[in-house]
Write a structure and sequence with these properties.
Elements lengths: L1 E2 L5 E3 L9 E6 L7 E3 L4 E2 L2 E2 L2 E3 L6 E8 L3 E2 L1
Parallel strand pairs: 1-3, 2-4
Antiparallel strand pairs: 3-8, 4-7, 5-6, 8-9
Length: 71
């Protein structure tokens, strides 16, 4: 997903399959992008709602399993 507007929340699907890939880039740099992990873990940790707080940040992740989540 390439984001070109402010104040957006991306919500992951409720069901993910091994190998599902996601990439998010904040092209605006205003630090208002949020990601709702929708109950999925991110790198083995419960993530919940995460706000990008670094201008022009990016995240790339592939779903592995319920224990590790998106890695």
């Amino acid at each position: 997903l390439f984001r070109s507007s402010a104040n957006i929340t991306l919500t992951f699907p409720a069901v993910l399959q091994k190998g599902d890939y996601f990439g998010v880039i904040d092209l605006v740099g205003d630090r208002t992008c949020k990601i709702n992990f929708n109950g999925h873990k991110f790198r083995g940790r419960d993530a919940g709602l995460v706000e990008f707080n670094v201008p022009f940040s990016a995240i790339n992740a592939t779903y592995e399993d319920t224990m590790r989540g998106l890695v």
